[in-house]
Fold each of these.
Amino acid sequence: MALAYIRRTPLPPQEWTELKTLLTQRFQPRDLIAVYKAQFRTRKRQRSEDIPRYMDALQKLAEMAWPLLDPITRDEMVADQFLNGLDSHELRIQVAATGIRRIEDLMRVARSLEAVENQEAGHGRPCGDQTRRGSQTGREPKQKQRG
């Protein structure tokens, strides 16, 4: 469908940015972009959501909201919203205090700090692809029963 649209244009695009602009204008209407922007700005981490899934959701929303924005600027916006959307005030402060701005590093630090926070609090919350103590399912190992 996209290829057929490009072939019908009077002057086929010569560069990637031209192609991206044409396709965005055709397949991503402005009213949808406004919705994606609002969703991005209000996106918070869900209670059961692990950090990588939260970051993935932000990145996808940012790409849909600002498809023509350069990736570096978009990543800066994602990093800001990532921090703003963390549901733990302590975690938000600790991650922000590191001064880290690269998305991969933000995720790594947030996961590590959250793991420590959870361990100190004595509960497990998903931090990524790590499981809680016990088996691969994340359940505690069964205790042997005494005779």
Amino acid sequence: MPYIKSVCRAGKTKEIAKYYTRRYHPKGEKRTPKENLTTEQQKKVNERCTVRKLTRILNANFDETSWYVTFSYKKENRPDTEGLKRHKRELLKQLRKCYRQQKKELKYVETSEVGERGAVHIHMIINDIDIRDIKGLWKYGFVSAKPLEDTGQYRKVAEYFVKYYQKTKGTDEQIQKKAYNCSRNLVRPEPIRKIMHRERFRKELQIPKGWYLDKESVREGITADGYEFLYYTLIRERTAYSERKKLESEYSNNKKAYLGVRQAFADMEQYTEY
């Protein structure tokens, strides 16, 4: 019997999952007894799902030209929950205006944090902009900014965002209903699932040329339904990614040639075993 293979492409990354289900699993193999998760275990599962979803969004929409910006409050300006919401609306309105002035469109993902000593911060990922123009918009405290890494894998950022949210979730100090908020103009990658007609999936990871393995992403085990799974993420090497973008850019004015370049890369990846 076959298994399910799921591939989700997001920016420079390719997230791969292989797993069995009740319908698709090795012939004659019995599943492990279904596990009833405790509240704490279910909480961790939910957190992993949130991190995975946010990672896909970040990887698909941001790169090394983007910024991780933190807007912090002076102690005397720290707001209550409603004040924080109002300040975020004001900030986003000003940011959109700033981007329009540079003939760009704002893309963002943001979350808020309350520190152990009561410090309040707004953490935000934004697309390419002259960061000097941003720092003058915040009148309640301080602004710090740093560019994103050029790896294209922003799982760590996603983990930090979810961690900030978890600090006050379910308490009287909870400052937002969701782990993060983002602009509507973002690409939201969805995995493509395919039935693979092989008896079993390979546990040995074969990394295709032009990619490398995010070692911290590798997970394998048994699902809550009792079936085996393997999950990992590949990252496109900088030279391979740059070469593809260079070719696409060169042929951008010739639609037929441009589509041909994209299809050639897609075909090359489709028939590479991993």
Amino acid sequence: MRLTRGFKRRQFQGEVFLIVGGTSGYGREAAIHLAQGGADVVIAARNAPSPKGLGSLPRAFSRQGRIEFRPCDLTDESSVESTVRAVVADLGRLSGCVITAASPYRAERPTGLMDIPTSEWNTLIATNVTGSLLVAREALRAMLSTPQGGQVVLFTSRAGWASTLGHGPYNVSKAALNALCASLANEAQYLSPAGLVRVNAIEPGEARTGMNAGSGVHPRVLMPLLMWLLGQRTGGPNGQVYSRDGLALSLAYDHLVSGNP
């Protein structure tokens, strides 16, 4: 896949995007780029952004797309439902949904599957798996109700293919997210054979985000891929997991059913 560094001016004019967990890192960069492309962007998160975060962005992009914040707890089904429905009611549609929110592993205190308290396990799965399901399916329902359709993009991690000692709980949560992407994509194809709605995922790699504050890589490095993916229309990729450079990654099951090595 060839990825360009920019995108066409007004590429997303008239479109509406919901970014869950977008007050910093990849989500913040996605909001900026989508607004620059003419889209209206709603950032939903549990906590409001700091004044140094998104506070000045709505004014900065008022002549292009706009960015606004709405509180939402992705682990609360009623909160997710009301947020998505309010976005559609207020802005007219939902073109795409990017879910970057995640609960990280604690690098300073590795915890294995044998040791993790059940309460911590439940919190991790509620955020990384159940929360993503709640947001994705509500977004898909909204997209299926319009002739334009749309796309959900999940953010996974290389941990979803790993078995790193001490990080088993996080690895499991991301492996489950990969399966969630593939399974939702199949359901989307069944509900919309023409490819009206689609579900894909990105493994973004390391960058300077809340999980990797010390990284020297800026989150904008991912934007060519994300903007390309969100710019795909009906019949575009579905059920794919992409690395940052645009390589389509395979799950073990893909090889099992295809017979490929």
Amino acid sequence: MTKGFWLSIELLHDKNTTMQEKLLLIEINQLSMLDKGCIASNNHFAETFKVKKESISRSLSSLEQKGFSKNALTRLKSLKHSSCENHILIHKIRVKNPHLKEKELHLKYKDKRLHSEWFNLNVEDIEYIKGLKNEL
């Protein structure tokens, strides 16, 4: 039986996501359907796509930074590398399009950006974010 894959039209036309990143998301999604989930190594992806492991590492890091990671704790660990301060996870939501939601929040709080992924939010801002509902 021939198997296929599904790619949302939004992701297909997303100019901020490379084709390799899109293909990685498809492969990860397919492997996630296995009993043990996606336990593939960067080496597996590199061999599958005929690229260097470093290229896969960069693409996976980019996807995580763009909000495609479903693991909030993994995302938090990646953010810790860009700051020397300690951080704790205070809230998380599941959304259909994490990249779009992150983009919306970045736009909403653009005047409060310190640098990169870091913002100077007050209690009211945090309460607004904590009020966001799961979409899944």
